[in-house]
């Protein structure tokens, strides 16, 4: 489907704002989660833990859903397509994973906030849960940095579907569109799934 230039710009603004808001809110969440681990001030830790749940529910969640939705609509409504370019597909995949993990963690966020609201809560309570939140927040922030880099650099590389679409769109050009996984995608796969050393 096509879209008018004004609608495309509106969606781009909405996508950029929601993505930037997501990154900023997650950075705040990470700061609160670190305070929950390292501080020995019980009142400060209680406040930070309760603030994490509020930030997750009312800031991070809306921004993440808005970022995912506007990204999907942009991909479907422009020439980039959803499954034609590796950078678009990988960005969508990473954003979907980050949103799914967030949804799964909303329960633990609320559990920690409820525990922190109890006056008997101490800085040593739920340490494992607080540590896991630090890890997830840090990983989520790194993932969003990667998606932002993909959106800015737009590294070249057509998926098999993208090659087929381009050949159909430009039949007079013969077959100039490269088939095969781009080098940057292969290197990313190696970093995420390093090969195990072979047994001798």
Draw up the topology in text:
Layout: H1 5-38, H2 42-77, H3 86-117, H4 127-153, H5 160-169, H6 183-192
Helix pairs in contact: 1-2, 1-4, 2-3, 3-4
Protein model, in words:
The chain has helices spanning 5-38, 42-77, 86-117, 127-153, 160-169, 183-192. It has 200 residues and is an all-alpha fold. It folds into 2 domains: 5-155; 157-200, no CATH class. Helix 1 packs antiparallel against helix 4 (127-153) and helix 3 packs antiparallel against helix 4 (127-153). The radius of gyration is 21 Å and the shape is elongated. It starts with a helix and ends in an 8-residue tail after the last helix. Mean pLDDT is 87; it is low at 196-200.
In short:
By secondary structure, the chain is mainly alpha-helical.
User: Count of helical segments?
Assistant: 6
- Computed over alpha carbons, the radius of gyration is 21 Å
Share of residues in helices: over 70%
Could you list the spans in which at least 5 consecutive residues all have pLDDT below 50?
Answer: 196-200
Q: Compute the average pLDDT.
A: 87
